[in-house]
């Protein structure tokens, strides 16, 4: 066992070198920064004017292709940041007409200044504050579409979590970090490491899947598998997975930094009208890939020998072993697959929002919600549950403030556990 | 290398406010997890409710300090009831997920813009600890020996904090020696057996959840009083997991385990952080930058947590047979 932990640590150490390239430069001194986006799309070329509190000009600048801007300020204190509304794209305006912010910059800190944007009501149309029936429908359709995208991403991660739970009984709190790892590794291949120049995102994503799949394999081969052999209980493994999550998350932060990033391809993509909704082509591609992978894995579970073996192990490992199935091998393949599709979820999440070392942690509970709603340990339940959670989260922003949208999903998680703990598709068994 | 700074901060960390706050949180977790076998992953929520109960009562409503304390404690009891009634019948891993989700819901509500008038959004609330320091009996000055010591405000907080820690340890010691405590331990070992003896398992679990939550809430008060403010993101899941690390480090189901665990944890945490920072600043370590020291020590917490659970789940004082790791 000692060897196992040493090997696991060594593998993590190996990742160090992989990540060492783009370790981010620490922000020096005080500053202001922000990102200007509308419905996930960056807004390029908007003018931002920064002055001190008493009106002394500091700097004027425009947002770049990623919609971001950053200003170094001479000292800590209060500053006035003005967004020039006339330089925004003609269809956008600052929400509520508020284009001035007075942020406080603390010593050694970079403060973030955000300007929420909204679509300008076309002349003759009802203003956005009082949506007519058609506008409400359009908004609901747009949110449902975004929710479907989020739901499919959650489903990818949830499928891996559910398969691992089904075959090993491990409730893996470190699954969110596998999601982050996938996105971060893809980002590094995408923007270039070891002095290699960056590669296209498609290739970077493929390499990331291979690296993360290998990570999943080795994690089981040298860590979880050894623990199972020692007879470590499922509750102990669950608590250990929290330690793994803390370790991985902070190692990712160590190499990646605490800032937001985005891939170098496909960030600014113009949306196109599709019936009542506006979508960027990349989102359609992403959803196509997500659906394809989900269907392939689902069919493989039903039809292939390995899939049948995996389901047999889920049902009863001892019986599966006695009928000639190599249980350890099946579990190892499930771990490889689970880590790889979690990585895919991370890459897709990175496409539709920005990359951060907490991105996996932030959706971990949503993954749990999806898995529980569908029924813990059932692969198809995870799929259905996740899509319901994703759509619910986005559509609920019609009524609840956006910052509370996850609360609804977590409340669902709790209510489902109380009312129907086996989930939508799960079998009834002892849970209390 | 400024060894004196490293030494003083490390010594301060052994008895400082962090030990008081996390020691109390860990005593609560010890009652839940160590004695009763409940996997409550929402301990941070109890601390948040207490801290915010105190802050909002004083700052927003304008009531006196003691009312704030009562509101905070009542909030913790209410949270335990709300959390416990539906979830205490669930299996251990489900209970863990529900409590962690509930804690996140509470954190999100505290930081939301919609309730900014009450809870202050992501900036939280400040300016509620004046009453506490007004009853400080210690005159201004330096309390300590040589470079080690605290000013009168911190000293007052630490005196109250350590008295509270001692009282909580005494309460836990007496309770766990009593028939009531033996029922809790029996629930941890075999719930069905206890039920067959005619005990109301649910009621005992609920009492355990309330007691541990209230002691954790005391930790929330001390956090607010020392820092003079409460912010929502302080009470994230990491706080709960630190408390778990401390309990397992000190030894679960041991009266003094959480306190010793908290002291060892913070000494190591502060020492490693300051040592690495100083070494980087002095140029002895060049591979990492100073901002990277933060993630390193958190990563070490994770690694230490894994190693402890794998090789020595009983921690410093514990008994391997008494750890509720393989229950159910």
Automatic annotation (TrEMBL), chain B:
Membrane-crossing ranges are: 6-31, 38-59, 65-85, 92-110, 155-176, 209-228, 234-252, 296-311
**GO CC terms on record?**
plasma membrane
GO terms (molecular function) for this protein are: branched-chain amino acid transmembrane transporter activity
Q: Which UniProt keywords apply?
A: Cell membrane, Membrane, Transmembrane, Transmembrane helix
Q: Where in the cell is it found?
A: Cell membrane
Annotated signal peptide: none
The way this protein sits in the membrane is described as:
Multi-pass membrane protein
InterPro entries for this protein: ABC_transp_permease, LivM-like
Question: Which Pfam families does the UniProt record give?
Answer: BPD_transp_2
Annotated protein name in UniProt: Branched-chain amino acid transport system permease protein
């Amino acid at each position: 066992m000692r060897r196992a932990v040493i090997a696991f640590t060594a593998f993590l150490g190996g990742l160090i070198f992989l990540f060492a390239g783009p370790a981010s430069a620490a922000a020096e001194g005080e500053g202001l920064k922000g990102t200007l986006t509308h419905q996930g799309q960056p807004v390029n070329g908007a003018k931002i004017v920064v002055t001190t509190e008493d009106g002394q000009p500091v700097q004027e600048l425009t947002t770049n292709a990623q919609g971001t801007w950053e200003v170094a300020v001479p000292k800590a204190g209060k500053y006035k940041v003005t967004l020039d509304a006339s330089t925004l794209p003609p269809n956008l305006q600052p929400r509520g007409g508020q284009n001035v912010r007075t942020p406080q910059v603390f010593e050694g800190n970079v403060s973030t200044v955000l300007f929420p944007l909204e679509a300008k009501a076309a002349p003759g149309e009802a203003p956005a504050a009082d949506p007519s029936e058609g506008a409400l429908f359009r908004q609901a359709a747009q949110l449902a579409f975004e929710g479907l995208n989020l739901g499919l991403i959650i489903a990818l991660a949830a499928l891996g979590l559910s398969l691992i739970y089904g075959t090993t009984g491990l409730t893996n709190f470190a699954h969110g970090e596998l999601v982050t790892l996938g996105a971060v590794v893809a980002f590094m291949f995408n923007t270039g490491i070891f002095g290699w120049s960056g590669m296209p995102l498609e290739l970077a994503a493929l390499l990331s899947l291979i690296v993360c799949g290998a990570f999943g394999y080795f994690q089981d081969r040298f860590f979880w598998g050894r623990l199972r052999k020692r007879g470590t209980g499922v509750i102990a493994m669950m608590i250990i997975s929290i330690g793994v999550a803390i370790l991985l998350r902070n190692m990712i932060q160590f190499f990646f930094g605490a800032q937001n990033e985005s891939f170098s391809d496909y960030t600014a993509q113009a949306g196109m009208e599709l019936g009542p909704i506006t979508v960027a082509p990349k989102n359609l591609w992403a959803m196509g890939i997500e659906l394809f992978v989900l269907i392939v894995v689902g069919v493989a579970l039903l039809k292939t020998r390995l899939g049948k073996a995996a389901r047999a192990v889920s049902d009863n490992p001892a019986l599966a072993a006695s009928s000639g199935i190599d249980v350890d091998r099946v579990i190892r393949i499930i771990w490889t697959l689970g880590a790889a599709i979690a990585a895919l979820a991370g890459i897709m999440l990175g496409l539709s929002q920005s990359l951060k070392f907490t991105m996996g942690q932030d959706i971990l509970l949503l993954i749990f919600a999806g898995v529980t709603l569908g029924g813990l340990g059932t692969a198809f339940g995870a799929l259905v549950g996740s899509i319901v959670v994703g759509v619910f989260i986005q559509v609920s922003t019609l009524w609840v403030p956006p910052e509370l949208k996850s609360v609804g999903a977590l409340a669902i998680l709790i209510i489902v556990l109380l009312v129907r703990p086996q989930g939508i598709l799960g079998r009834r068994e002892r849970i209390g | 290398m400024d060894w004196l700074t490293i030494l003083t901060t490390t010594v301060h960390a052994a008895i400082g406010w962090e030990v008081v706050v996390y020691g109390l949180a860990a005593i609560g977790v010890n009652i839940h997890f160590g004695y009763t076998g409940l996997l409550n992953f929402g301990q941070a929520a109890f601390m948040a409710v207490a801290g915010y109960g105190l802050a909002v009562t004083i700052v927003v409503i304008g009531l006196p300090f003691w009312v704030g304390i009562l509101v905070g404690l009542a909030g913790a009891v209410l949270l335990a009831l709300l959390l416990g009634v539906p979830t205490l019948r669930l299996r251990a891993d489900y209970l863990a997920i529900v409590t962690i989700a509930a804690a996140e819901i509470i954190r999100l509500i505290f930081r939301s813009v919609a309730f900014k008038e009450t809870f202050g959004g992501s900036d939280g609330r400040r300016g509620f600890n004046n009453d506490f320091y007004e009853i400080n009996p210690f005159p201004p000055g330096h309390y300590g020996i040589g470079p080690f010591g605290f000013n009168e405000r911190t000293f007052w907080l630490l005196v109250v904090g350590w008295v509270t820690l001692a009282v909580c340890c005494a309460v836990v010691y007496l309770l766990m020696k009593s028939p009531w405590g033996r029922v809790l331990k029996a629930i941890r070992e075999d719930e069905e057996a206890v039920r067959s003896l005619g005990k109301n398992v649910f009621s005992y679990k609920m009492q355990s959840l309330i007691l541990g939550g209230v002691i954790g809430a005391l930790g929330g008060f001390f956090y607010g009083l020392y820092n003079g403010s409460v912010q929502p993101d302080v009470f994230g899941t990491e706080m709960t997991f630190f408390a778990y690390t401390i309990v397992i480090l000190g030894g679960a189901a041991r009266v003094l385990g959480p306190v010793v665990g908290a002291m060892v944890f913070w000494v190591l945490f502060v020492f490693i952080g300051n040592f690495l920072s100083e070494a980087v600043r002095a140029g002895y370590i060049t591979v990492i930058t100073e901002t990277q020291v933060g993630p390193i020590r958190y990563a070490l917490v994770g690694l230490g947590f894994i190693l402890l659970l794998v090789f020595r789940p009983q921690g410093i004082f514990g008994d391997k047979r008494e750890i509720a790791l393989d229950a159910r």
